[in-house]
Fold this protein.
Amino acid sequence: MDILQILPYFSPKHGGSATSPYQISRALSKRGHNVTIYTTDLDTKKSSFEINSGLRVIQFHCVANIGGLLITPAMGNQLKNEIKDFEVIHAHNFRTYQNIIVQRYARKCKVPYILQAQGSMPKIGKKKGKWFYDQLLGFKILKNASKVLALTETEAKQYKQAGIPSSKIVIIPNGIDLSEYNDLPLRGMFRAKFGINEDNKIILFLGRLHWIKGIDNLLRAFARLKKGSKFDNILLVLAGPDDGFLSTLNSLINKLRIKDSVLITGPLYDREKLEAYIDADIYILPSRYETFPMTVLEAIACETPIILSDKCGITATIKDKVGIVVKPSPKEIQIALLQLLSDEDLQKRFRDNCRIILKQFDIANIAVKLEKLYNEVIEVSDPK
């Protein structure tokens, strides 16, 4: 099968919205399909994914970033010339310049395309730029897609609220390449690299430093925990690229007087990221909103107990199995941290459950489901 994947980013800096399509593409390539990726060159100089020998990756120059739309005019010319070479197109994220181009040429040349919003559906109408995109282009792009992919039931409801019939919505979760976790780093490597005492309890947040991640509430919870509990050897590690929120976090850290107990590492990728998960006693994601966080799957793969906000779309998978689900408030986060740090038996139970839970997210199985979906939309568009 000749498959075109469209994604606006090709750097792990952009989290799951970039990592998931990349892993999907690799898994499909391993299954013998011809996979081409059209993407942009935004941030790829600092960090980019490895280009697998089975993938054809074309990074188009981003000439401008207009309200989050990454303008890549050269992609239109390439797609115009190549679109008939593809049997199906899988477009990732919702409000992108690339999707405008895809919709135009896919309809013109009668090539089916699938849209996967990757958690970007919400806030339709909340901001003027997004409202105009949705009214002028977004709803049209959704309507003309052969299928739309949801990561969770919550995201499926968001498609329905946008007017998409249930018959066009397919739920397939993100996946993870389990082979990448067969040879995990030894415990203590992250601690040694950053001079962390082996007696310290590490609470890890790993992701973009953005307001939506709820890190400010985590800092308040951590300060309360430090002040009111028996744990004086706890360390909060914030790992990830700054997405406009770092200065606010630094100000809050100083205000709460917890600077000596907070380590900000900057972005961690590849082995360094795994070392952080392995050494962490808890991985926490207190997001104000999240559809399907890839970092949670990564933490599970490293057998790290989790505290997760109930605003995340995969709480049913986590709750009481590999972690604790809480409301993203400082008080509830503090209570959950204290509970998990104090209960070694609970930590062990969560760690023991991780590999069992992870099987359902094996990227090889996700690729099979996508393959079936691709074949379905190809047959409908070109019945024999």
Summary: The chain has 14 helices and 15 strands.
